[in-house]
Amino acid sequence: MKHELQMLNLRTGIECAIIGTRGDLDTYNSPYYYATSKRVADFFEATFKTNLADIGLRMEAYLISGIQGIVSNHVQELLDLKEQMAALILHKLNEAAKTKVPRMYYNNFKTSITAKYGVVCEGWLLSKFCCPSDVGSCTELMVLNHAFKSGSARFHAMGTEEFKKWQDKQFQAAIGGVENREDSGSDMSNLSNTILTPPSTLAPATLAPSTLAPQSSAPTMPLPTFVPPPTFVSPASALETPLYTLAPLPLTSNTLHLQQTGTLITITMDHNSEQQCSTPLTTNFINAVTAADGSGVLSNAKQ
Fold it and tell me: Are 266 and 278 in contact (CB under 8 A)?
């Protein structure tokens, strides 16, 4: 078949390519491919970004394992592109820095690369500046690979003056960020001071009078109420013992003791103070007089 294709090309100038592969596991032949000229092989590499041998292997995987083989090959291709892109970026960085850079930093590129080696990245085509391992598209990796190889994306080593201007710009940006944080912090502190002003700092005139009165910690108990005893008359005596009525006193103590000695009553309170009053506060004198005929006359005098 190869000979026939060669003769066809020599006689007529027809260019062609052929790929042959097995369709199941029962056969053991390897994939076969042929192109009548180098221009045909270059066409596959420029258009499909791969060669005839790779296409033959993919075709064989698809015919044997179906779509699962294609997916596996795609995943492997993506991993290979990530590895190649990471190595290419590090190589370009070392060329621009003119020194050995052990590792490429993406998240802290300014502090770890630019500030240390004076190198900036220009022409990054992806929307996010990140490590190739974080890119999930083969197309994006191919575009980025082509950009670095063609020079549209590159690392640039700054000169002395350019690097000094870059440092001043970063310093001013850092100063502005600190000032903004300080301003916002002072605003919040003023707000908190306004809201959380303790009541003790207020003027005394604004406080209610009840809050200025001392509060007693001792429990209060109700005072006993004195009920006057009933008045009675004994017919056996013309002058009975006076009956005493004691009006309630406005006392604030919790305990009250009464003691009578003759015509004197002593009131003792629990704070060891005594109050004396003459007896009686109110005295009823009741006299009974018996006449000769046995009739009685009652007289009542109040003193």
Answer: no
Nearest to 72 by CA among 57, 59, 56, 61: 61
Mutual angle of helices 138-150 and 67-97, in 10-degree steps: 30
**Are residues 44 and 86 located together in one domain of the fold?**
no
What SS3 state is found at 60? helix
| Residue-wise pLDDT tens digits, 159-211 | 999 999 999 999 898 887 665 665 555 454 454 444 444 444 444 444 444 44
276: domain range? 255-302
Predicted TM-score (pTM) above 0.70 = no
List the single range of 22-36, 54-68, 261-275 with lowest mean pLDDT.
Answer: 261-275
Domain boundary among 16, 36, 65: 65
Of 51, 81, 231, 229, nearest in space to 141 by CA: 81
d(CA 81, CA 85): 6
Residues 61 and 86 in one domain: no
Q: Do residues 145 and 88 touch, judged by C-beta distance below 8 A?
A: yes
Q: Give a yes or no: residue 90 inside a domain.
A: yes
Contact predicate 128/106, CB 8 Å: no
Number of domains in the chain: 3
Do the domain assignments include residue 20? yes
